[in-house]
Every structure is written in C-alpha cells, then in structure tokens.
Design brief:
The structure is a homotetramer of 351-residue chains.
Chain A lengths: L4 E2 L4 E6 L5 E7 L9 H11 L16 E3 L3 E2 L2 E2 L4 E6 L21 H8 L15 H16 L4 E9 L2 E2 L18 H17 L5 E8 L13 H10 L4 E6 L10 H4 L3 E2 L2 E2 L7 E2 L2 E2 L4 E7 L9 E4 L5 E4 L13 H23 L2
Antiparallel strand pairs in A: 1-2, 2-3, 3-7, 4-7, 5-6, 8-9, 8-10, 10-16, 11-16, 12-13, 14-15, 17-18
Helix pairs in contact in A: 1-3, 1-7, 3-7, 5-7
C-alpha cells in the first residue's frame, strides 16, 4: 500500500536510496523455467548508465546487477527473483549543503512534510537513481514478453521544442539520444549544448511502441491496459503527461477522422494506439510520455531554507541537462512491466 | 485482479452492464460515523444524467440510487456500502442488429476476442453507462474529502478545437457544458450543432481541480499521486491522454521556466500542478484529460461482421454527440476516489 | 483493505447486514464462457437455509438469489458477477432491547469500540446471516472447480463431545446434520435436544474434503494452500481452530509415523492432508474447523450495558442451538472459494 | 499474487533460497521516524540461530543482518526497508544425492510438479531457512508494536506428547526450549535425547501471547484478526494446525461455559483468546500452533526417485530433531507482522 510495488501477477517491489549502500528489486510471479542470466539485465541497465556525453551526469556508476535468488542453473524457478545493484560512486558530501535548503522542482519539501524526515543525500528515494531498479526488473519482464514474441522499444520524439519529423526505427541506435530521425538528433544535440551553456535544462517527449502484442490484454474497467500504462509512465519522476495513440489530438478531431475503420486486413489507421475499450487490439501499442526539464539547474532560483527564510540557490553537483536520453530505457522498462503483468493476468482466465 | 476494483483503503468495486437489470458499486473502507444520505449521491448522479439538450442522448434514465448496506440511521458504519442503480430504460432490441457487426472505435471486437463472448446490448460492460456506478461511489468519496476541507471540481476547457480562453469558475454552473468561459460555451454549442447535422461526433478536454488538499498525499514510487490520477482518468473509456500541471507543455519549456520558485508565501507558479515527486504540495491539483470523439456516428464507416466480411455501418440508436459534458462529473468522481483513498492511506502512517 | 474481499484472481467482495434491505456478493475474475444459472447457486443456499428442525432458528428466509450482472444468455461473460439476496423476514424490533446491552460471546462491544457505531439489529454485519453471501459466491466457485473435476464436500465429525467413529460418505445426505455416521447422528440429535432444554448451546467440528485437486495449487511462502484455507475457515465467525491432515495430532507423534511414504501408487498415508510445503500433492485435501457453541443462550449471563453497569442478560430471539449444521455449507463455500482462486492463480504461471 | 508478500499496510516481501547467495526481506509501509538499528533485528535473529544444543542442526550461520535502505541516521524514513542476510555456511554438495530423490514429508515433489523445476539444494525456497527473513522483518514489526505498548511472546507448551502443566513466564528464557515450565523442560530434553538416538524426530505445540493490544484491531469479514493470524502461522512450513483461545476445546464445551462473561473489570475468562467477531477485545491474544515432526529423519523410509522408481532413503545432512525451539521466534515474528499490519490498518479509518 505504500506504493513501492507494481503489478499483480508479475509483481515488482523496488527499494533503495540514491546514496544508500545499494538499491534493488524483488520480482514475485515470474514464470518458472525461463532462461535468465545477469547479462540479460545488464544490457538494459547499460542503456541508462551515465555516459561521457555532453548532456549527461558525469557520475560514474558501473551499475552492476547481481541476481540473489529465484534462478537455479540459469533458469527461473518460480520463486522471487531478487536483484541488487550496489551504489559505488555516491559522493554524499556533495549534497551536504542541500540539507538546509529545498530545491525548486524537487521533492525535498514534499518528502519532508509527508514523512517528517528525509534522506537528503542525492534526493534519497526521490532520486532518478531509483529507476535503475525498474530497468533491472523491466529487463526480466522483457524476457517474458520475448518468449511471447512481444517487443518494446522507446525513442525520443521531441527534445524541448525540437521535434522529430519522421520515425526511422533503424536510426534509434545510431545516436546517443535514441532519436529515430538523425537530422533531428543533430539539432537536439546543438540545443543541448546551448542550454548547458546557459546553465538551464530541458525536457522532451518519449514515445514507446510495443509490437506483437496479442488481442485481449487489459482488464476493464479500472485496470484498462491504457490506464495502467498511464500509471506506469506517470510514476516516473519527470513525466508530467501521458497519451495513447492520437492522444490529445483525438480531442480536436471529429469522430469520423478518429475512428479506425476495420478491414479484413486489420485496422486502417491506429489512432487508438493499439488499445480499444482498455483491451489490446493487436495493433502496435503507441504511448507517449511528456518529460519535464530536469529541475536541477545552475541558474539562480528563489527558494526557502529549513527556517522558512527566502534564499537563493544554484544547484551544482553532477546533473544531467535533460532526463532524455537516460529516461528512455526507463519508459521501456515500465511498459515491459505492464505488458508482462497483463499477459500473465490474461492467462489466468483463458482456457 | 480482473480490474473492477479501484483504491486500496477507500476501495470501490463496480459491476453491471448497460442493459442488465442493474449496476452498482460496493465501497469497502469508508470511515465510520460519516453522515450519508442517498440525496448526497443523487446530486452527483443527476449531473451525468442524459438531458434534453442538443448534444446528449435522449435515453431516459432516472438513475435513482439506493443504499443497500453500510449505513445505519444516516451514518456510515465502517462496513461495505453497497449502492445500486436499476436500469429502467434499456431498449435492448435497438441493439440487436449490432450483434453481428463490430462498431469501429468501440470495444466490440476486443471484448469478444478477450473473453470469447460478449454482451452486445448497448455495449454491455464497455458502455459509458458503467460510469454511473463510478459517479455514485465518487459522491461518497467527495463527502470524505469535504470532511477534510478538500473540494474537487471539473470543467470543460476545450470542445473539439474550440478552447476556453479563461477560467471563470462562476460560469461553470451557468452553462450546460460546465465551461468556465461563457463566450466559449456559446461557440461550443454552435460547434455541437454543426457536428450533429453532419452526423459526426467530437471530443474535447476536461480539466479537474482539487483545492484544500494537504501536503503529503501520494505514495512513491509507483503510486505517486499523479500516477494514480493518470490511471484513474485514463480508465474512463473515452480518455486518451492525461497531463498534470504544465503537462505536455513542460516538455517544451526550459527548467528555469518550468520550476516553481518557492517563497515564504508559497510556490510562485504551479507548473507542477500541485504535485512534486508524486506527493501533493499543498497547491491546487490540476489535471487534464483528453476526451476522444464518441465513436458512434451516423456517417457510414467500414467494418467487419462476425463472419469477417467487410460491411458498411451507420450507427443509429440514442447516442450523445460528445462525451462532454456528461463525462465531466465522471472525471470529478475519479479524482475524488483517488484523493479519498490517498487521504486514508496517509493516515495509516501518520502519528 | 477493510477486509470484505477474498481471493486474488477469483475475487469475492461481500456486503450486507442482517437486517438491512439485502446482502450480496460481487465476484470479479470468474472465467468467461461458463454456464451459470441462479438454480446452481440456489441449491447451495438451500443447504444453509434455516429449517424446521429442532436445533435451528425458526427465522424464515427464502434466501432467493438473483444474478444482476456478468451473465449473458446463461454464460458468464468475464465481467463482475453481482449476486443479491433480499432480506425478507427481518424482525428488527425483536432486537431493540439489545441496543443497550452487550451480549457475551458476540461482537457487540468490539464492533462498537472499533467503529464508534454499530448496527445492533440482529448483529448487523457480524451476524451469521452474512455467510449467505459467501455460500452464494462459493456456489459459483464450485462450478469453476467442477469444470476441472474438483469436488468439495463438508460434513460434521463432532457435535459437542459426540464424535463420529466412521466416515461413511453416503450417510452425509441422509441426516439433517450432514454427519457421515448415522449412529452418531442419532446421538447428536439427542444431545441437541438435551442442550436445548437446558437453554444452552453447543459447537462441534466440521471436516472438509476436496478431491480431484491437481498437484501444484498453493503459493509459497505466505499464501501456502493450507495457510489460505486456514484464513478462509477461521474467517467464519464461529470457527476457533483449523487443522490440516493429521493436524494437532501431528504434534504428538514421531516423524517416522507422520511422514507419508511415497510409493509408485501414490502416498501411503495422508497425514499431510493433501498439502506438502503449502502446495497440493494430488491426495484428497482434508481440513477441519472447530466450531464454538453459539453464544446466544437463554441462560442468564453477566454482562454490561451501554453505561458500563453490570446487568444480567438472557438472549431470546430466534437462534440456533448450534452453528452446525448450517455452518457446514459455509465451510464448503470457503474451501471452494480458496481452491478456485488458487486454480486460476496457478494458470497464470503455467505454460 | 505469487504469495511472497504478507500484510497490506505493513507489507513484507521475502526472497531467497537456502543455498543461494543470500536471503532477505523488503518492508514497505513502516511508519517513518522510528528508531531502527541492525541490533534490534539481530537480537531476534539470534533466537532462531542454530546452536550447539542437542536437538538442533549443527549448521553454523552467523545470520548477520544488514539494512540496505529505508533508514537514515538511525531513523526509518517511510521508504522501503531492505534487509539482507548472506548465506555463509551453505554446503550444497551435501545435498547432491538428494537431487534424484524425493524426501517424504518435504516439498520436493510438489515444488517440482508445480514449477517444473526445483532448486534441490537444502530444500531451496522450501527450506526452514526461509524463515530467517521473516524473523528479521518481524523484529521491525515488533518495534512498531513496542511504540504502541504491545508485546508478543511465544513459548513451547508441548513437545511431542510432553505437555507443560503451567505457564510460568519467567521460566521461558531460562531453558533452551522457551518452555514456561522448568519441570516439563527437563522431560522434553530427555525426550529429545531418546528420539535423537532412534534417528527419529518430533513436533510440538507453540503458544503465542500478545498483550497490550488495543480493542479494535481486525477487519471483518475475511480479514478477521484471528483469520489472518491463522494464515500467518499456518504459512510456517511445519505448522499443521492453529487455534485461538479455547480453540478445539471450544467445540466440546457448552455455550454457557465457553462465553466470557463481561464485568466492569473486564472479561471474566478468556476463551475467546482476545478476539471477538474477528476484532481484538483488549484481552491478551492467545494463539497456538501445532508443529509437525521434522520430516528429515535418519530412519529408512520408502520413496521414489526421479524415474518414479521405489527407493529407500535415509536423510542425513545437518538437521534439527525438532522444529522447536527454533520455530518459536518464527511464530513470534508472524504474530508481530500480523498485529503491526492491523494496527496501521485501523489507523487509516480512525479519527
């Protein structure tokens, strides 16, 4: 009930603070007999690892995952899979000055008021570092999906106000920003440079696509597939909006344009984003998440200290300029977790 | 697990089909000793009742709610509150011709493939009529919130591509569309007329505002308050997008603009939409839901019949032109349910 | 979380008070496409209906069940099944004098202190009448089990200190007490007569047997099949003890006697009661529930009134002398609900 | 849903196999601001540690617990508390010969059939070693209870057919068996010696008492306090029966004897075991668990091998003669977890 568990059959519980000894995830409900090797998980973790690149935090974390249970001789056993990632490069002292001050746009103040106490080191549990555990668990979910020929891929469709004009899937792995439009990727990098020099930050939009999903996933009425995807993505700290298929544009067009005609070859369009009445319809599932700019900026901002006095703050430390691209594998992970759970939920009632 | 339950402490389970004998909700976890009268619920139900107005279905449903349990001498007892609404004006025969054909934009096909069977009468469980039970339960949640000085109001901020240019809260009750901008309301009504004549339909955007919410509601990391609100709203059939505060616009602006500066008088702006790190921050909570056009249109559309043959369909029957305004109280109800649940969840860990 | 829901896949929520307008159950997660007729449920309800017999309450309740949703043209649709039973013979006035006084052995005092309010009429939610909803839901679970060739039967193995000396299953339906030993049944009836004349009450032991259960049901570690069965049975108001297989006797014998040797033909004995390490082993599942004497007796007892003053009480009204035999179908129902849920839970992880 | 999580507000998920690298527990929902030091947990773990004594396994496990998250500067933060215990003395090879054979009384066969795979080393997840994680989590629950002046103590009331004849609470810590009757403890030790020499094993009965529990804990109808206690205790591998208060004896006596009269000074007797209608009544909560003999015995037994052929087995390895006394702190832990959860559940609905 305290909110650190996601899923009902494929159920994940994460734990860990940014500057504690470790963070991890426990997966309960993974089907037995599935091949699982740490390298399967490491691959996804490496995608969110901070790199040398311009827009990213210079914090060095090998983020090496260990499997502590639930796997025997390379196969899952049906018992809980415990994953752990030790924190190695946590420079807690760099955050000491933040103990007395609330960073705008962060959860410093809300955490303190909710719990009456907060681990201020690196944002504690509110740190984006928490998502490493999600990515690790998501990699296991991805294997469950792969066994059912479902694949999930996420990519950047906008960075600040620079949008992609096409989705060339082959380009995604060719640039650091996971952008399916090489020309846009170049503009995005330039924009990152400009923003970094100004000491500011920026956000963007991530699109996630799931293909191969069978018809029938999703549980009306409250656990509609799109509803749970919305929760899954909105639960990522930086996400402020989620839309499915035509999304907000569907609110502007007429029914005759928005409806996807049904033909013997399938749906003629995919404004539904692959989900009808909360149930997957066999078309690719398309979801987008709006990512806000990283709140840690080196520009001066107004805020309060612990004594409720107005102070100025410039947030230093090792921060990314944008949650993109590191949030991209996190979005992927959350969609993988959602789909794996619904795949197993559907099996419970099928013959 | 089958998805008809929402909430963890204030827990609601709904049931019922559009053309079955009745529909209802069971609320488990409502605090005891609270005054509750059927009229408290009826008031909200009346807001979503089909009216005589231009854009709405002429179906007549008194939607009279009865309380079957959990209330004794006008007070809640802490035991489950069972609410029932009998279906009185269900003209099932009007739907007989739809038994053999899949309506585009509806869940006909996905329901059939998921369950291997479907109640085709009026959309069965996938009918918007299902939301009557949500509104009934939401009215009880609203009372829980009112006892804690929290109030929730929803209103129309766009109908098709007609947007409001101001939010004059006093106007909301002065027009049929719950629009906080009388000038826009007039344009919206004209647009509805045009679209109805064309046999088409339209959507829009609903904004929901919660005021009086204390700091501290929301459970990191997966049950962040915004994440659960996103699920809550996206679980309404017609909703295809949800955003909090600045929402998708946050993805376009810089961090220095998006961050809400903290002053001794409170946050200077509210781009966060009242939620920071998944926890309410004391500011008004602002959420928007994108509503797609109603898929039932009288224009001819391509689809398939049960034999997988291509056919043309014109959906007749008694349908609204737009889910707005009837979806407005449904959005309110879902936000009430979410907040009441999180209010009680927070109490469990507070001293 | 408020405790009126049972099961995780086959999930039942019950509601209703003894003297409210009705009571009922909502089943969420019943597989679609299963034949279900009200008569399937009525059959089980009739087994717990108060009869004319000596030991039973003379209250007349036809206990006619109605199916309000989730069934279309005789088949389950996969959506929630709402069951309702109207209360027709509730003589609330007979309980008015109990408003000011706490009956020993009942939940009057604990309900009042927990909730700060209580529906005193007939025990409100704490009445044994609440179990009618369980029996109704259990009948649906029984159908799910029957489709998988699992059957569940309960019977009386002791009434007060009169125990059965054999289990002749054919005798169960031949006597009013569901006793598998006709000779013992005669002694039990005599005992009931004696106790009734004394104005006292008595309890007994119910045994439940499930046959045809496949190997593999039960979820280690906390949701072991025996653990959930224990919860299921102990959740019946009058039950004060539960044991599986050899049960408490297993605590007295040595390992060499208690272990069930494994042979090519199966287990040589069944001290395990069909469950090993929390998982069904294919043998009949054997559980016993200890039922306390009904607390309502016409003998004078010491208690308090609302003003905390000592008073004497003789509980009149229409009461059974023993919860047996009416509790027998309730035990059956709880075992059916548990097994149906675990059957579906297992399907979610099987290939 | 896979059963490794217990509790709804104070929610514990355990993981780990007997011979994996580690085992642990994640506690989600512990109230913030509570002092918590590893030594608080270690104290309870030490009570279940294998000792030098006659009846216990000579396996050496320091069972040193580490807190990996959720505690900051000695106080709980409200975020998940991750506890880990590394396995250090796991001699897996000692179990290699058991890979091909099913031990009677163990879960070897049921695990294999349920999951299609099993970690045979030391019983894998089915090992009693799993309970170390429960004891660790239970120690945290105990602190939550202590802050509310509730204390829980367990003790041995029977070992095989040697029963205690008195409950002298001061004696509990004076003998290795946690027996509140020193004379009985001597007889029990003699019995253990006899049984060990015969190569056999034995069980017994553990009683758990909780004092200081306020009136009002427990959630009717399915989550009655006694129902959840029954699940909690029955979920311990060796437990085959659970009873509350008078328990099975209540089935034998008359209502006039079983009812606890209510007086201005409280209940005159405590046959209810501190729970009425599923809700704590303020009296000490008394529960008993029947513990079966340890199935691993060195006497020859009939069983099957992987090829379904009949074979003889003598189980060697390092095993206890009886689950008592090491199961005593496990019973305590499960009761602590149950009460802490219900304490917080009750807070959610209280004013």
């Amino acid at each position: 009930m305290a909110g650190n568990t996601f899923g009902k059959v494929f159920q994940v519980t994460t734990w860990g603070e940014s500057h504690g000894p470790a963070l991890g995830a426990v997966i309960d409900g993974c089907p037995p007999g599935m091949e699982l090797d740490p390298s399967d998980i490491q691959k996804d973790l490496d995608k969110r690892r901070p790199g040398r690149g311009g827009g990213e935090s210079p914090r060095r974390e090998p983020d090496q995952v260990e499997i502590l249970s639930g796997v025997f001789e390379g196969l899952t056993t049906g018992t809980p899979i415990s994953l752990i990632i030790y924190n190695e490069d946590a420079q807690s002292k760099a955050y000491n000055h933040l103990q007395q001050i609330f960073r705008p746009g962060h959860g410093d103040l809300t955490y303190l008021k909710k719990y009456g106490i907060r681990d201020h080191r690196g944002g504690g549990r509110a740190s984006a570092r928490e998502t490493a555990a999600r990515v690790a668990a998501g990699a296991v979910a991805r294997k469950v999906l792969a066994e059912n020929d479902i694949s999930v891929i996420a990519y950047t469709v906008a960075l600040g106000d620079v949008a992609t004009s096409r989705r060339n899937m082959k380009d995604i792995t060719k640039n650091r920003l996971y952008c399916p439009d090489m020309a846009a990727a170049v503009l995005m990098e330039e924009f990152i440079d400009t923003v970094r020099k100004r000491g500011d930050s920026l956000g963007g939009v991530v699109e996630i696509q799931a293909t191969g999903c069978p018809v029938g996933l999703g549980e009306p009425v409250f656990d509609k597939l799109d509803a749970v995807l919305a929760q899954a993505l909105m639960s990522i700290g930086a996400v402020k909006g989620v839309e499915i298929g035509a999304g907000f544009r569907a609110a502007e067009i007429l029914g005759s344009e928005n409806n996807d005609a049904i033909t013997p070859k399938g749906y003629r369009t995919n404004n539904a984003g692959g989900i009808l009445a909360g149930i997957s319809n066999g078309d690719p599932i398309i979801v987008r998440a709006a990512v806000k700019p990283i709140p840690s900026i080196s520009l001066e901002q107004d805020t309060l200290n612990l004594d409720n006095e107005p102070v100025k703050i410039k947030v230093g430390g090792r921060h990314d300029i944008s949650a993109i691209p590191r949030i991209v594998p996190v979005c992927e992970a959350m969609v993988c977790l959602t789909l794996a759970d619904h795949l197993l939920r559907q099996k419970a009632i099928e013959n």
